[in-house]
Write a structure and sequence with these properties.
Two copies of one chain form a homodimer. By secondary structure, chain A is α/β, with parallel strands linked by helices. Chain A has helices spanning 13-24, 26-33, 62-67, 84-93, 103-120, 137-143, 158-170, 174-183, 192-195, 198-212, 231-239, 305-325, 362-372, 400-412; strands spanning 4-9, 37-43, 58-59, 73-76, 97-100, 124-125, 149-155, 222-223, 242-254, 259-271, 283-290, 294-301, 347-357, 377-384, 388-395, 398-399, 416-425. In chain A, helix 4 runs parallel beside helix 5 (103-120) and helix 5 (103-120) packs parallel to helix 10. Chains A, B: NADPH binds at residue 103.
Chain lengths: 430, 430
């Protein structure tokens, strides 16, 4: 049978595993495809750094590799927007299938890639772009294609989950936990993309797009990282029976005038009984709610060379099977074209801790600030100390803008010394 | 665009939901497919019992419906082997795609259906056959197609999990818990298929087949139900830090002379820390271990009309998309053709409770019985009482046949009054 010819762009942590597995398990994979898989080229920057890859496969000219007419599938594991976008467009335009793990590119430039794929009838697969080895893209794009998804919520960044788990387990500070994560290889030298939520926001954009049949880009996702989460926040959460998680939350909401999509990434106090609360360390888990299916959860390793390579190779087998059967995988589905709900309108509950004067009238002043903003208080707890007291307020649901405005006003009250912890709360808490 | 014409066989619990959703959300589903979906017929036994379905769609002649040349997709939700098998063969042979939720048929007659599908280039999809709405077939057949799965282990029967959860929660007997499950609609009037493990065994056969690229039929699955699980077993498990679960376990094992598949369904004492131990009530969860992906878990509602309909409609959208693109979904993948390991050779650990004479030498006699069978004891605990004592033994791993032979011999010892609890143990226990 005519072989399916595969080119790989990049031989880093994921690429190395993809190439190793293609070479070690090529026969097995070919049996599953129904035709031989042949690795015909690997584009890298520095060929001499890859002694394990046969020299005749290596090239520094990625542009020439993706343009080769005999390449049927391009696997992209270099990341970044530029020049990756152009490389993939070149491949798609001449009908090659693309398998990519590039969440940032999909979140920024997904529509352009989809359009090129559609124009040429080519496949664009990206299971590895969200939550590593956990099958998530395929279940949402395909298994749940007959259902109405209302919410996709998950821990999709292992680095920040590792840090938050460590802070929760031993009360350590963010700085110490980050240092440990870096030492163990869970955090990169520059952890910005992870701790500031950029990585999770790109994944939220992808999940919201496929879940709600709407184009949602990285810029549509409200984003708050976890660099400001303190040990005080973690212990405040514990007192509420909660843990702190950095969640990607994608919802289909009814705004009163119609449906909209909300996509956001921020730290949340989550009740310990919630299935996501027990997901610790570098693991990922995504919770999906759909009208007919009910509540589903997907759990597994969210990153790492081998797990991500597993997802890439699953996609490779799929696109190769499509090549043979003459079919195509799912295309972009953006027919719903829902608007994105601004973060200010998203209903939130807040937990707020305040250091206040320990004297009469303070609670009244604080309560007034909430009332004037139209925010209703669910519980308030006062803990007296010598010179000052602490007020812990948990609100009912209110528009996020009203809540953040209230927090600003509170910090301006004379009787409030300091706002020590502010965090959104999810679910039922005391 | 030419519509995709759909026939439904059966309008019971699942069929009713499929038909409702097709009619209520047909436009949405059509947008996702890229062509109109048109329901052209519903085969039922008693048309007058379905006033909600337009009379012109109803027919009692299922054979004529599946033979109609204008039907593109046949959805089968009647169950059973006969005449269902022939109906689906007729549909597949003339190139219609089949979407079925029929685990028993797939486990018994899967190869015949696959062969007919392959001969005609037709699709055969069955996401709903295992674990209701939980995407599992597609992740295993497609997402993990680039990986080597070593184990698939899960709670795949909601009825028995509901009963075991109730017995664990309140110490009630099997009979009482079954009565309650029946009252609440979680158990059928004749619960045999569930409590005797036939349902779970059919699902294990399907999971082992697709996970290990080998034909595994229902008859290849070792099966023990949970009707003999007693309140004493449950409390013995609790003393070990375990819960009792009825698991479907599919493993790829190295027998020394090569790889083999083990597929079995039986009650297990599972440590509370295991992710499956916390899955309670009618929920299902499946744990998958793969060489590159690591450990994955899938969790959700395993049965019910709407969840199962969600899985059926996801498959409908998939096969309809394939019809339009001219492609095909995954075929049978049975190239590995591994042998099935007999249960007697499967390495097991046993928990055994014995009522024995409270006198010197009993432990020695019991220990000798284990030793003579080549079974090594991990822990033994003796609880004295007035007239007699209880011995609780947990073994190391040994071939299942050696363990069951040992249990028979123990019950023949004069000093052993009664074997009160025997159950396989999984994982690390004290």
């Amino acid at each position: 049978m005519t072989p399916i010819r595969v080119a790989v762009l990049g031989a880093g942590v994921v690429g190395t595993q993809v190439i190793r597995l293609l070479r070690e398990q090529g026969e097995e994979l070919s049996a599953r495809v129904g035709a031989p898989l042949e690795l015909v080229g690997v584009a890298v920057r520095r060929p001499h750094q890859h002694p394990d890859i046969p020299a005749e496969l290596l090239t520094t000219d990625a542009a020439a590799l993706v343009a080769r007419e005999d390449v049927d599938v391009v696997i992209e594991v270099i990341g970044g927007i530029d020049p990756t976008k152009d490389l993939l467009l070149t491949a798609l335009r001449r009908g090659a299938a693309v398998v990519t793990a590039n969440k940032a590119l999909l979140a920024e430039e997904g529509p352009a890639l989809y359009e090129a794929a559609d124009a040429a009838g080519a496949d664009l697969y990206f299971e590895a772009a969200v939550a590593g080895a956990i099958p998530l893209i395929r279940p949402i794009r395909e298994s749940l294609a007959g259902d109405r998804i209302s919410r996709i919520m998950g821990i999709v960044n292992g680095t920040t989950n590792f840090i938050l788990s460590a802070m929760t387990a031993d009360g350590s500070s963010y700085e110490l936990a980050l240092k440990e994560a870096t030492r163990l290889g869970y955090a990169e030298a520059d952890p910005t993309a992870d701790v500031d939520g950029f990585d999770a926001a790109a994944k939220a954009a992808i999940l919201a797009s496929i879940g709600f049949h709407t184009r949602v880009g990285a810029a549509d996702v409200y984003r708050e990282g976890m660099a400001d989460v303190t040990a005080a926040d973690i212990s405040a959460a514990a007192e509420l029976g909660c843990v702190v998680k950095l969640l990607a939350i994608c919802e289909r909401v009814n705004t009163g005038t119609g449906d909209a999509v909300s996509a956001r990434v921020h730290p949340v106090m989550l009740p310990r009984a919630h299935p996501l609360a027990g997901v610790d360390g570098a693991y990922n888990a995504v919770y999906v709610e759909a009208e007919s299916a009910g509540r589903l959860m997907f759990y597994g390793p969210g990153a790492g060379g081998a797990p991500t390579a597993s997802a890439v190779l699953g996609d490779l087998v799929a696109v190769a099977r499509n090549k043979i059967s003459g079919g195509r995988g799912p295309r972009e589905s953006a027919y719903a074209a829902l608007p994105v709900q601004p973060m200010g309108e998203v209903p939130s509950r807040y937990h707020i801790s305040l250091d206040v004067d320990d004297k009469a009238g303070v609670l009244a002043a604080v309560a007034t600030a909430f009332a004037e903003a139209g925010v209703s208080i669910s519980t308030v707890r006062q803990e007296g100390r010598e010179a000052e007291a602490t007020l812990v307020v948990v609100t009912h649901s209110a528009p996020d803008a009203a809540l953040s405005a209230t927090v600003s006003r509170l910090s301006e009250l004379d009787s409030v010394h300091r706002v020590t912890s502010v965090m959104r709360v999810m679910g039922d808490v005391a």
